[in-house]
Amino acid sequence: MRTGAALDPGRINTFGSIQNPTFQARTKPPQCLKRHSFLRFPQRNRTGRWISREGDSRSLTCEVKAVLDTVRADEFSSSVGNPAVSTSYRNPNFRRPNQTVWEAQGKVCTGPTQTRPLSEEQAFKVLDTILRSARGELKDDEDPVSKSQLGAFFAAMTIRANTFPESTQWSEGERLAMNYYWPQLMQALSPDIIFLADPEGSLMGTGSSVGPQFVGNVPSEMRLVGALREVLAGGHLGYEEVQGVLKDVLPLKLQDLGSDSVSESLLSAFLIGQRMNRETDRELKAYCLAFDDELGPAPVADVKSLTHYGEPYDGNTRFFKSMLFVAAVRSCYGESCLLHGVDWMPPKGGITEEQMLRFMGANTHLSPSQAKQLLEDAEVGFAYVSQREAHPSLYSLVRLREHIKKRPPLATSEKVQQIVRNRGRESIVAGFYHDGYEEPLLMLMRRRGVHSGLVVKGEEGALSMTTKSRSVNASKGIPVNYCSGFRTLNLSPADALDGVSRETFTMEVDARNHGFEPTDTPRTDRSVMPLVLLFNCL
């Protein structure tokens, strides 16, 4: 029988091996729940899971504490281990990127139509900063330019010069600055950076042999350098080639602990270069599937249905983030739900599900096997798994991803994961923001072999839709609340890759058609607490 045990604050303590602080349970709902303003459901659904009912002493509005070590109310905002602001979750051991070069990366490390060439003043400032950093001449208040930044910046400049349309190739100011500084930079930069800036020895007009002769400094770099020659020329790679590179160089170490470590400049160049060239389906599939079995085969749950939710790992910085609570409510109706993400991720560094769970006292160190147990538990049906626990090799890239500034291909592929598989029906739901990524996401879902897939253009690229009416001045392109997906009519996941009938659909959800009046979405910026309180007060 599914009872209030689904909300039992002590359930997670059965996993004794988990290294996470244990808190006292908050046994009473927040004061705002005592008003008759929250969602009301029948006492129990057909599966036996208890759900809240007006006047029922068990009513906690579907706060799924089965995955929470809940905290006392007086610890809600004061616990050092559960900070309330998203920026507090950034690893303090990460060195900050140099701001001058980082801002320039935001302009040049992007696509053929989005790139904004630097002005002469900007280009001279950036290259001067790089030169002074290489010589150890920066001021005390300036952060050094990291290898990751150098790799991303010079790879972007090379790709722009080789393959971009004239409007986003080098500006006249960039050419003047490069002609002035390159002879000095060649004397100060390491061979890997010179290779990225001039792989064929012809781009800078110096006839240097460093780029053409570079093969890498350690064995693990050799395949990466070969792949980079193709990427820097605007080319694409095969599925096995991308997977081979990733498995050669990951996981990264927080510190360079030995001569066998791969140069972060090369890996940064590879990641940002593939994004600038716009990844092919083969390349995206390689990123998506490369580390599926890193910790062994994914556990297989035995539940009626399982929905995987994938939102941007870098979180929200402006609007209400609702998917954690939606998944919790759905689990109360017998629809098992699995969320995944990280504690903190660049470039936005916004609020994530993991931050919200930690703020509420959650145990965010569940292994995939422990998540499977919760999904199968007749009184729970809900779990969250961190990338840190499921795919540590990919999680090791967080620091590097901050320094490359822009989103790499992983920002797309990591949303379509099957950390736990299921014997019954499976669905994947993922959010997106930038036009053009809806079809690649659906392609990855079909490749996963699930019965149904859905992509949603929610606010900030998350899954949260808005009730706000679309402005007449809204930009062109796919509107917020746009959805696209497929349903497999043949229920066998093994047959879902090809030769199976699928029903596809697209729609734009208008809240007014569902009885909602247009309203502005609550803004929470980078604070976790308003999100939790907004849900509690529904």
From TrEMBL:
Transmembrane segments: none
Entry keyword Transferase: yes
GO CC entries: cytosol
Keyword Repressor appears in the UniProt entry: no
Keyword terms, alphabetized: Glycosyltransferase, Transferase
Gene Ontology MF, one: GMP synthase activity
Official protein name in the record: OLC1v1013305C2
Organism, as annotated: Oldenlandia corymbosa var. corymbosa
